[in-house]
Amino acid sequence: MIWEKRGYFVMVKAKIKIKNPIGLHLRPAGILCNEAARYDCSVTFKFRNTVSNAKSVLSVLGACIKCGDEIEFICDGKDEETALSAMLRIVDDGLGE
Amino acid sequence: MGRGTGASAGIGIGKAVLLKEEELLITRKEVEDTTAEKERFARAVEQSVSDVSALAEDMAKRIGEKEAEILNGHLMLLQDPMMTGEIEMQIENEKICSEFAVETVCTMYADMFASMDDELMQQRAADMRDIKTRMQKILLGVKSVDVSLLPAGTILMAEDLTPSVTAGINPANVAGIVTELGGRTSHSAILSRALEIPAVVAAAGILGEVKDGDELILDGESGEIFINPDPAVKAEYEEKRAAFLKEKEELKKYIGKPSTTKDGVTVEVAANIGKPEDVDRVLAYDGEGIGLFRTEFLFMDRNEMPTEEEQFEAYKKVAVAMKGKPVIIRTLDIGGDKEIPYMGLKKDENPFLGYRAIRFCLDRKEDIYRPQLRALLRASAFGNIRIMVPMVTCIEEYREAKALVEEIQAELKEAGIAYNPDIQVGIMVETAAASLMADVFAKEVDFFSIGTNDLTQYTMSVDRGNDKVSYLYSTFNPAVLRSIRHIIECGRKEGIMVGMCGEAASDPLMIPLLLAFGLNEFSMSASAILKARKYITEYSVEELKAVADKAMSFVTAAEVESYMREFVTA
Questions:
Q1: Mapped to the 3 state alphabet, what secondary structure does B299-346 carry?
Q2: Domain parsing of chain A, residue ranges
Q3: Quick check: A61 and A26 in contact, CB under 8 A?
């Protein structure tokens, strides 16, 4: 995890590869979003040049993430560390697939 | 007379009910009290969520979890903060009514998805339009047609059926479905198949030719539609329908039965699959194994090479699901005809005669073949996996692949990683060279699987996709039959299993010949398994030998085919 000073909260980020066979289509995207929505902090992820809102299915789908693509989660806010661990874990667990 | 694409097999006979969605009039109305308007919108979303949840639950119970997922997808979209946030912002900033804000935002997202290259993403466009209409109807107080109240014997006709509408369909009332749009993989097609309701999609213009109450007959396989047919046609199709339903029932009886001929010859009827998810159908149709598991899916539609781990998971999944039944996995069969940017493949001038399959894999051992073989060997510890090498022409190719397998086995042993030390390594026999040298190959490989599609093309020197010469493509051509017979004989002589994974394995005109030649395993698409088993149990191999001899005495494909057709229909 990389730490950066930003405002009152330190922002946390980490990279992870998506392992879902057909990438982040509706079902795994939904699971990702449901988890992200549980946290107060902002949860976004970077892929190449785009930043997507992990709490919005439309935003995640729009990023067109395919199997093997590496994304970087960025959590910023009160429960950012808990959120980041949780996001990394569910992606690693395969997002329900 | 109308025509479309057959999307769900079966004959539908009944009276047309045209489902016309009321044109919703959406106008840009200005609002003063934006707070109240946002409240109004929030309630419409709440209502939508509640309605769709109820539909999804009902669908999961009546049809299945998988089909209900489409509606669960709608729920996710309805509650997407980005979308609802956008709509609220529009209401606030533009001071406009909810209906118009919904129209603007949802259409924007629908267009975004429609413009993407991905088929799944394009289906999301239809989802966006469905929820847009749903929210607008609630806002405008427009009632939807209740499809569960349709009379029995209804042929439901629409421009397209949204998942929400299809969810309410009661198979007891709806005898058939016809849509102007859609394709075999659209929601309406998938749900029709799940509900086992005959359906025809992509019947352009059909709504202009039919009115409510018209008598309709549709053939869900051929895609034909008859409007107000005369009694002779009606009688013909009523018979067809009865025969179809009878056959469906009859075939179910073959589940769990052995594939044994009348004179006690037992063969294996297996399935061809292209991805792990297909395993469900194989088990549903009682496949005795998997005769061909194509692995190309792992390498396509992505930006970089699949890792060994990813491959291992996919192979393991299938091995485990098949619970010890044989799973023959074909190593990467890809070449310059497919677009795979990260592989660094240049476009071949002559892809089918070019740098592909085993030739490609043996040239890219380190980054491609090794990881795949390692993943296969690791997965072999979890089921009955057999490795199959494609497009082999020379014995050296097999020996090199086999040596690599043994090398990796030693590595795994050293590292203490489990694998099957007795794993079988066989070949696809699909080239002229492999066929001619079948006696040599049979002495070294563990099994044969005849790939009739490519074998026919290479033997007849014909591209089946070329309209001008595709008439030459025929498994009944004596040259191809001699090749097949020879391959099977060589295999049997050395006591190795000989299977077939091409289309010919399920062809009712070919099955008698293959049985007579001594084929051990017939691998086909899952839906053809029960029918093939039925045919096999009705023959006696001893009696078929005379038939095969006669068939092999002809010198033209046409003579062979017409002789077999005569024999089978007798």
A1: CCCCCCCCCHHHHHHHHHHHHHHCCCCEEEEECCCCCCCCCCHHHCCC
A2: 2-77
A3: yes
Question: pLDDT at residue B181 above 90?
Answer: no
Q: Is this prediction's ipTM beyond 0.85?
A: no
Q: Quick one: fold of A2-77?
A: Histidine-containing Protein; Chain: A; (3.30.1340)
Has domain B1-19+145-232 been given CATH number 3.40.50.300?
A: no
Give chain A's largest Cα–Cα span.
Answer: 39
Residue-range domain boundaries for chain B: 1-19+145-232, 23-140, 256-569
Contact criterion met (CB below 8 Å) for B308 and B375: yes
CATH architecture classification, B256-569: Alpha-Beta Barrel (3.20)
DSSP per-residue letters across A19-58: --TT-S-HHHHHHHHHHHTT-SSEEEEEETTEEEETT-HH
| Shortest alpha-carbon distance between residue B80 and chain A (Å) | 5
Give A17-68 pLDDT, tens digit per residue.
999 988 998 889 989 999 999 999 999 999 998 999 999 999 999 898 999 9
* For residue B95, pLDDT beyond 70: yes
Cross-chain CB nearest to A58 (options B82, B302, B307): B82
- Cα–Cα dist B315/B472, whole Å: 37
**What is the architecture of the domain spanning B23-140?**
Orthogonal Bundle (1.10)
Angle between helices B34-62 and B119-140 (to 10 degrees): 120
- Tell me how far CA of residue B361 lies from CA of A24, B366, B367, B397, B428, in angstroms: 29, 9, 9, 10, 15
Are the beta carbons of B503 and B453 closer than 8 angstroms? yes
Q: B120–A19: do the CB atoms touch at under 8 Å?
A: no
The residues on B that touch A, with CB distances below 8 Å, are 69, 72-73, 76-77, 80-83, 109, 112-113, 116, 118, 120-121, 124, 275-276, 297, 301-307, 309-310, 313-314
In chain B, % of residues over pLDDT 70: 99
Q: β-pairing, B174-179 with A42-47?
A: unpaired
> How distant is the Cα of A30 from the closest Cα of chain B, in angstroms?
6
In angstroms, rounded to a whole number, what is the distance separating the alpha carbons of residues B232 and B243? 17
Nearest-Cα residue of chain A relative to residue B78: A57
| pTM metric for this prediction | 0.76
Q: Which two tokens stand for residue B97?
A: 């009514």
Greater confidence, B369 or B2?
A: B369
